[in-house]
Specification:
With 783 residues, the protein is an alpha/beta fold. The chain is built from 32 helices and 26 strands. A hairpin with a 6-residue loop joins strand 23 and strand 24. The N and C termini lie far apart (84 Å). About 10% of the residues have low confidence. It binds a DNA duplex (15 and 10 nucleotides) through helix 5, helix 11, helix 20 and helix 27.
DNA sequence: GTATTATCTAAGTCT
DNA sequence: TAGATAATAC
């Protein structure tokens, strides 16, 4: 079946591929086959879900047909491919070629100021909610005009007490446009505008992309669907690959309906079903099938395997999230020993990034190397965003978000008041804030001379970088920016450990840019000069400039980030289930299988949300090749509070005879009882347990169920009020201490529970103060 | 205008 | 719990 699908190169093709059925292999061979048949690599467009997937597929194709051919393939995510096309065609839409791509943070920040300017309450119009509403509109190809004229949407918005969303959308759009910026959704939305309003452009790309392939088709949204449909209209050599059971991006507008539409759009469609799983054991495949069968909405599919039966799925049950971490780490350690497995054969998958902490801690203490994918990625760190904001402003001076971020970083005496004045002025003359700065030599805009000088100095500095943009390579310019702006110095002078690591991160970024200029990184798509085989060739400057670097990083995804691990290190992988899509590992641990976590609490309201969670669990299960382990904990810390947890309903959906359940009344695993296990050792509980960390949402009598009653007696009386004591550590009632600000004084009272022990001190100069000992930095003068 | 401290608030998955 | 914002002192 794989071969048939790969050979069917002409006409519309749909491949419904179950998990582990080798769809990447089919795509790879299909493209290799096209190339062998003499199809020009420039005429093949292949859309993948991550850039990493594109890169890997390209490498595999290169092995089959040689690097020269493979290099010219047009491969990447929807966003990166069409961002590239938009840069070529930007001027038709009124954007400069160097438009900025706003990430979610930028977008929310714009929204925040829009909401404020409209005088609306940001408690009702929460930027994140507004953002997702606008995002949904764009993904359904609704402009702000259409949004405002759509009666259904308008009554929806009135019903949810947010009638002015349309206005916000309008202003948001205008501001992004004025900043020469597109958000993620604009990349697709504007591609649609481009293909709709410019028939010659559409014609050009239709004839360029004679063969189109789309991977993970079940996760495309309406906007993407329309793009593909239009581009494929001339030749209809379109092949989509997908699995409805693995559709997990509904929240982003992904629509399984696209698969159904596909059948309607192309009546002569050839469909191939890949149902044999080559990845997992029988146990794992059966478990996955039994889980997914609980979904009502799904296509008929029958995934099976010839692989061995395999071990049962082990269920780990623990008392706390920390113990869960320990049990998983222990199990990995044991498996490594008994099966002679390498670290990289293991993956730990969780529903939310926040769950990684307890796992990390346990792995670290057991000296098991690991790597976390996602979470706070390198490019989201403050110091990196700061310096990148300089890059952005140099490349696109209209970029208001970048401007706001750095106008006073490092501090140069241009504060909030000045910034507000500038924005008002800019709004008044309908120009960008940058344009106001450029005007300063001619008009004072009512600003006083001191401020004007400071602003002009800043503008001059940025201008000096702009001059270098096309004369210096990326590394040189980036280095100049880091040095001349004072960022490096600022971070260097910060002697805290965080400051040092920030400094190192900047250095790491500069190193990355250096690699880029020396062309060590493999570019995913062909450089735009030979994109049109000469047709568009600009004077080919060999210079790798900063704007080219920025194009490369704007759309990096979490899955793409293994660049830093060049040595292909042997490490355990930690990631969310979403991030694990498309990957496979011999040993997989799915952790945190608890109600309200997996399935997520937010998915419990509607059937379709719950079904998406179930598909997510299906994806998690099917990542495993040899052995699957699942775990849940009976209590878990969430935002500082301890919560009781129930096992996930998904566990019950796995056939019981496939499971190896934990024995009741016995600890699931021997764990290190002295650390990280709140009530294990006599004194260590104090670190984690105190009056203030009792769950706040539940009444005190029932809440601390997992905290043994005898602990209460140690630091609190029966009413739960803290007791006064004679001494805490070296501090004794009546002893004299010195505080660096308050001077000397005498301790008159000691109270509180670790770690929040407090002392009341009568200072000679300023009188009585109550200080938390942990923070107070007191020096004992007389015991 | 800047730096420090107190208070509030959100809390999910990703391009 | 941690990040963002508001309040305060300088």
């Amino acid at each position: 079946m794989q071969k048939e699908a790969a050979l069917q190169t002409e006409g519309p093709v749909m491949i419904l591929a179950g998990a582990g059925s080798g769809k990447t292999r089919v795509l790879t061979y299909r493209i290799a086959h096209l190339l062998n048949k003499g199809v020009d690599a420039f005429n093949i467009l292949s859309l993948t879900f991550t850039n990493k997937a594109a890169r890997e597929m390209k490498e595999r194709i290169a092995k089959l047909v040689g690097n020269n051919e493979a290099r010219n393939l047009w491969m990447g995510t929807f966003h990166s491919v069409f961002a590239k096309i938009l840069r070529i065609e930007a001027e038709k839409l009124g954007y400069p070629t160097q438009f900025t791509i706003y990430d979610t943070d930028d977008a929310k920040s714009v929204l925040k100021s829009v909401i404020k300017d409209l005088g609306l309450d940001d408690k009702i119009y929460k930027p994140s909610t507004v953002y997702s509403r606008i995002s949904a509109a764009k993904n359904n190809l609704l402009s702000w005009q259409e949004y405002m004229n759509n009666t259904e949407i308008q009554s929806d918005d009135r019903a949810s007490a947010k009638p002015r969303l349309g206005e916000i959308y309008k202003l948001y759009y205008e501001r992004c446009f004025r900043s020469s910026a597109m958000d993620f959704d604009d990349l697709l939305f504007n591609t649609n505008i481009l293909l709709r309003n410019f028939p010659d452009v559409l014609h050009k790309y239709q004839h360029k992309f004679k063969y189109i392939m789309v991977d993970e088709y079940q996760d495309t949204n309406f906007s993407q669907y329309v793009i593909v449909k239009k581009l494929a209209a001339a030749f209809e050599n379109i092949c989509v690959v997908g699995d409805d059971a693995q559709s997990i991006y509904g929240f982003r507008g992904a629509n399984i309906q696209n698969i159904l539409n596909f059948e309607k759009d192309y009546p002569e469609l050839k469909t191939f079903k890949l149902e044999q799983n080559y990845r997992s054991t029988k146990v794992i495949v059966k478990a996955a099938n039994s889980v997914i069968s609980n979904n009502k909405e799904q296509f008929q599919k029958d995934v099976w395997t010839q692989n061995i039966q395999g071990e049962k799925i082990k269920v780990i049950k623990t008392l706390t999230d920390n113990e869960e971490g320990w049990s998983v780490a222990n199990s990995i350690f044991e498996t490594k020993m008994t099966e002679q497995a390498r670290n990289k054969a293991f993956a730990i998958l969780y529903r939310t990034n926040a769950q990684s902490r307890s796992l990390e801690e346990a792995l670290r203490k057991m000296s098991i190397p690991y790597k976390i994918y996602g979470g706070l990625s390198f490019y989201k760190r403050k110091e990196i965003k700061d310096i990148i904001a300089y890059f952005r402003l140099v490349i696109n001076p209209a970029d208001e978000e970048a401007f706001k971020r750095i106008i006073n970083y490092p501090a140069r005496g241009i504060g909030q008041t000045t910034l507000e004045k500038l924005t008002v002025i800019a709004e008044g003359v309908q120009k960008s804030v940058w344009a106001i700065l450029e005007d300063l030599p001619h008009t004072d805009y009512g600003l006083n001379a001191g401020i004007r000088q400071k602003l002009w100095d800043f503008a001059t500095m940025i201008k000096s970088f702009q001059v270098q943009l096309h004369t210096k390579d990326a590394f040189e310019l980036a280095g100049n920016i880091a040095a001349h702006t004072g960022i490096l110095k600022e971070l260097y002078n910060e002697k805290t450990p965080e400051g040092v690591s920030r400094y190192e991160n900047i250095q790491e970024l500069l190193n990355g840019i250096k690699d880029f200029t020396e062309n060590k990184t493999l570019r995913i798509s062909p450089p735009s000069e030979n994109f049109f085989e000469g047709e568009f060739s600009t004077e080919t400057t060999a210079l790798k400039t900063l704007d080219l670097f920025m194009e490369d990083i704007a759309l990096l995804t979490d899955a793409d980030e293994d660049v830093e691990d060049k040595d292909n290190a042997d490490k355990v992988s930690l990631m969310t289930v979403h991030a694990a899509k498309g990957l496979e590992f011999p040993y997989v641990y799915v952790v945190g299988l608890e109600e309200n976590l997996f399935p997520s609490q937010m998915a419990l309201n509607s059937r379709s949300d719950l079904e998406e969670e179930r598909r997510l669990f299906y994806v998690a299960i099917t990542r495993a090749e040899k052995k699957l382990t699942v775990s849940y904990s009976q209590s878990r810390y969430k935002y500082g509070n301890l919560f009781q947890c129930e096992p996930s309903r998904f566990l019950e959906e796995i056939d019981e005879d496939l499971l190896e359940k934990p024995q009741e009344n016995k600890p699931a695993k021997k764990v290190n009882l002295t650390e990280d296990f709140p009530w294990g050792g006599g004194s260590s509980f104090k670190k984690k347990t105190s009056a203030s960390t009792y769950p706040s949402k539940t009444p005190t009598p029932s809440a601390p169920k997992v905290i043994p009653a005898n602990l209460k007696k140690i630091n609190t009386n029966e009413a739960g009020i803290t007791q006064n004591v004679e001494s805490i550590g070296d501090y004794v009632l009546g002893c004299k201490v010195e505080h660096e600000k308050f001077g000397t004084g005498e301790i008159t009272k000691l109270e509180g529970i670790s770690p929040n022990e407090k002392a009341t001190i009568l200072f000679e100069e300023i009188g009585e103060k109550v200080l938390i000992l942990r923070f107070a930095k007191l020096r004992i003068i007389e015991p």
